[in-house]
Write a structure and sequence with these properties.
By secondary structure, the protein is an alpha/beta fold. The chain contains 14 helices and 5 strands. A 5-stranded parallel sheet has the order 2-1-3-4-5, with helices on both faces. It is globular.
Length: about 250
């Protein structure tokens, strides 16, 4: 579903879209069937482009609609060479690196500068379809997925003192890494609620709840729900007393 820049009608239609999912890479990795199934399931305009240069408003800083930009592993070299072009082309949306090998994700993770270019998400391409679609749902809710093997890298760079000390005035360094939705899920986990109940309370699927819990566990460096709940009680005692969802 490439949109040639010379086709002004299609290009104009694309620019008028409020939101879209855009796969950047070869048809070998993002087939027409994949594009159509994503568009059908999520009800969001979905496209594929051969390269970032084919994307309308390429390089226009902070311009255009929010969009999910999913960049294939084969474009790693260009992705790291011109990070600002990719981030700007995502507009107000999310930038995601799609990988088939963990080494490729680690390579990008070690070289990407979030301070300069913002955070990016990761999309594994060799997982079960249900899990893959759940990660896309996270992206639609502006949640970036971080695989456990990368989240562990973050935890390993944090000193034991940082992991266990809790300042009364400042947010815990690990708790502050959680997104708003991850904090909501963690709060409900701390109340002993099941994935099914959490999903019902938040209006999301159980698969999405599992992904949130997976992300939380990786970010705070725990291996089970009990430890995650204990972490929440220690670092956010005031939030633990709340019974409503913001």
């Amino acid at each position: 579903m490439n949109i040639p820049l010379q086709d002004n009608t299609l290009n104009s239609q694309y620019l008028l879209e409020e939101f879209s999912i855009n796969f950047i890479g070869k048809e070998l990795f993002y087939s027409e069937q994949t594009i159509e199934s994503v568009q059908s399931e999520f009800g969001v305009s979905t496209h594929r482009f051969e390269s970032i240069a084919s994307l309308p408003i390429y390089g226009a800083e902070n311009n255009g609609p929010g969009r999910i930009l999913i960049v294939d592993q084969m474009l790693t070299e260009d992705f790291l060479a011109r990070p600002r072009h990719y981030k700007d082309s995502a507009g107000l949306g999310s930038l995601v690196f799609a990988y088939r090998k963990e080494d490729a994700a680690r390579f990008v993770f070690d070289r990407w500068d979030p301070g300069a270019h913002g955070d990016i998400g990761y999309l594994p391409m060799n997982i079960a379809p249900d899990a893959w679609r759940s990660i896309l749902r996270l992206l639609l809710h502006e949640e970036l997925y971080l695989p456990s093997f990368l989240a562990n890298s973050v935890c390993n760079t944090t000193s034991p003192t940082q992991k266990h000390s809790v300042e009364s005035t400042d947010p815990h360094p690990l708790y502050s890494k959680l997104t708003r939705r991850e904090k909501q899920v963690l709060r409900l986990v701390s109340k002993g609620q099941s994935n099914k109940i959490i999903a019902s309370n938040l209006g999301i699927t159980e698969h999405t709840v599992k992904l949130h819990i997976h992300n939380v566990a990786g970010k705070i460096g725990v291996s089970n729900r009990t430890a995650a709940a204990q972490f929440f009680f220690e670092v956010a005692p005031q939030e633990a007393q709340h019974t409503t969802i913001d």
